[in-house]
Amino acid sequence: xxxxxxxxxxxxxxxxxxxxxxxxxxxxxxxxxxxxxxxxxxxxxxxxxxxxxxxxxxxxxxxxxxxxxxxxxxxxxxxxxxxxxxxxxxxxxxxxxxxxxxxxxxxxxxxxxxxxxxxxxxxxxxxxxxxxxxxxxxxxxxxxxxxxxxxxxxxxxxxxxxxxxxxxxxxxxxxxxxxxxxxxxxxxxxxxxxxxxxxxxxxxxxxxxxxxxxxxxxxxxxxxxxxxxxxxxxxxxxxxxxxxxxxxxxxxxxxxxxxxxxxxxxxxxxxxxxxxxxxxxxxxxxxxxxxxxxxxxxxxxxxxxxxxxxxxxxxxxxxxxxxxxxxxxxxxxxxxxxxxxxxxxxxxxxxxxxxxxxxxxxxxxxxxxxxxxxxxxxxx
Amino acid sequence: xxxxxxxxxxxxxxxxxxxxxxxxxxxxxxxxxxxxxxxxxxxxxxxxxxxxxxxxxxxxxxxxxxxxxxxxxxxxxxxxxxxxxxxxxxxxxxxxxxxxxxxxxxxxxxxxxxxxxxxxxxxxxxxxxxxxxxxxxxxxxxxxxxxxxxxxxxxxxxxxxxxxxxxxxxxxxxxxxxxxxxxxxxxxxxxxxxxxxxxxxxxxxxxxxxx
Lengths: 380, 211
Ligand code: SF4
Prior knowledge:
The complex is a heterodimer of chains A (about 375) and B (about 210). By secondary structure, chain A is of the alpha+beta class. Chain A has 15 helices and eight strands. Chain A folds into two domains: about 5-50, no CATH class; about 55-380, Cytochrome-c3 Hydrogenase, chain B (Orthogonal Bundle), CATH 1.10.645.10. Chain A has helices at about 55-60, 70, 80-95, 100-130, 135-155, 175-200, 205-210, 215-225, 230, 240, 265-285, 345, 350-355, 365-370, 375-380; strands spanning about 15-20, 35-40, 40-50, 165, 170, 310-320, 320-330, 335-340. In chain A, strands 1-2-3 form a three-stranded antiparallel sheet. In chain A, strands 6-7-8 form a three-stranded antiparallel sheet. In chain B, about 40% of the residues lie in helices and about 10% in strands. The interface between A and B is large, with 40 and 43 residues. The structure holds iron/sulfur cluster.
């Protein structure tokens, strides 16, 4: 630092100051920043500062073939990439009028739900760390790794699976895979009481999280918040149930809700969702051996595939909320326009700014993690 | 005598490395597994650090958008020498997936010298661990000297930064002064770009520090 660069800063007369929370900060989720104005340790004003992860996805997708985009889309949301590729494939299938074979639909459901379990475990870990509990963080990351092992086995990739195509899925499941899925789920389920003791029912956690970052239902709806954050405010809206896609109609599951709308309620909703996801995967595992048939409907030469002109809107329930793709084709080899409705951009910018206002500075990180914000998807 | 000391310090340096915790891109998602129980980088003496001034390794985990790159540069210059840069992911090598994106910087080594790349999209935790071990080996043999290159060729790096961020680009760090302090002024330290910097340079106001 040059001596002449030292500047006497005229501090405001009170104890108010401004804090840059991120992008390089252990309490922030990903590469994201908040400019927080603090008085004492109360936040009076917060401004979200995104764009650090902007890559121009929607523009990039217009310059690539339909099939190349499959490799691109999972990068939009790194902790929960599978819904991205499934949703994009569904949108393309709608335009091209492709029917997906039943077996592929079941496998897709399994992929989506496993991804949800992994994402929720990761969020628990992050949330625990921001409340000062590091053991649940280690557990969450380690247990998520078991799911990643499953992903690696049946898709070939730990994080980005790139397993779907418009028309179906790429590969058959390996032999004995369903048994290993059951084993892993058994293990994760047997861990839940430990998680309860250490984290969910921990008095420290309850004291820290209760009443922090409350989203009223009306406010959540106004901002377009979906997913666990909306359900924690008492509205049981779930795309899987209310606008079923794939084979969710044939599956049995509950849509858990909570009333409080605070950080604690959001985490409890995620916990219940994790259990529901395990239940869904178990049903898929039970059903899959009886469902034969092909894995995908063949598409024409993918390198010169012209999707007929048209537009489509496909939506799925990702771990963060409703994820949707609006795809327009003008009949050429590349999409004409792709728009991604990312769930996080709804709750990670304005809602986050609202929620941290009036709270305490140490709850900022917690609020962000309890909302399960996903910066790469906000910036895209 | 000084050789003995050098070897000793290199030996010690290689065994106590602090990684600056800055997740620039999607490769950062593999770092929690690396840090925690399953792959456990602490058994190598590597652990995360939250502030740049105390960190040894700058881990650039993936694509750097131009907005991020400014922060990365600022962070890099704040770190105390000797410092090491690892580029994780293909995106830092040549742009990777985003080779035609308008928003990302394609090659990291145009803006700062890189000691080691870990290629892959994204590299597995094992790859990250083996990359760290490779770096430790290099440090022990005294080969991880990229930070000296930054001082010797400051003009080149500054030129690329100015090209990307505009002619007004400046950071609060006096790199040339540091180079003189370390005795690392080379042919490439001063040049037309540093001359430009000297022209536009002005004391930064607190607000400008936000970039
Ligand atoms: S190389 Fe792949 S995983 Fe790494 S930052 Fe680039 S796109 Fe992401």
